[in-house]
Amino acid sequence: MDCIYINLNSATERRLKFESNFEARKTPNWTLSRFAAIDTDTVKNNNVAGECNPAEKGCFLSHKVIIESNLAHDKSIFILEDDASFGVRTCNLIDGILAQNRNLDWDILFTDVCIPHLTTMMDLLKFRRELTAKKIEVAFMKLSKTNFNGSTAYIVNAKSKQKLFDQLNYATELNIPYDLYLRSLIHISALKGYSLFPFVTSLSDFSDISQVKLPGANRDELTWNMFRKMIWLERNLASCTSAVESIKGGLSEQNLAAHADMVSSPDKELQAFGILFSSMTAQRAQQRGL
Asked: I need a surface site. Which of 44, 161, 254, 289 has the fewest CB within 10 A?
């Protein structure tokens, strides 16, 4: 698998962390190359049109240029942002799943996504536990009706590269971020999009310090990121404890009561997710002014 990751020239620490993670986890026939991300100065100097902020425009154009530059060969490509993280089994799982599902018709296959919707989060936790009970490691999750975002890690099918590039070319003005543009294409069936589930990649520690979003990650984003890390196939709940307890510390007893059955459960997994769901519920109530 040819992997290409996007990294700003100024983000040296991210580059070192990403490459070290890949080097430790790669398997034979997996390669990695770096794409120097299009920065905000380049966006401004070229007067890139649209309502997105300069960082979002740079992100959109970086993904687009990678796809364009790989149209000539007949191989799928794995595009990653530099806050993605590989697990010990990521490469073998992807190779095995693709080999076993050669007849599946797909254009873009995410290896993890952000789920910003409480009901979907709860459904996915239930789905993960059902798969575990059935001893099924990874399934394909259709994204055509799923509220998701994020473009941290996804594979573009060899046969679909031109199709995706043509869709990106229609955006003569960049008015919505790249990940939401992909989502819109999947929701209108212009692209066939899936995610592997449970996720087979995750987020690094840099995920909470986004270079695309405006400064100051809010509790929503921190909760979404923790959900992604905790729903990951290779997750370690113990390593998530500190962050989950930090989220819990910002909640009142009334907030926690919304999912009291989970928060008080002897099942450590249910406890942790119950805190995340309580955080999401509290934030929704705050937004509604309750």
From this structure: 289
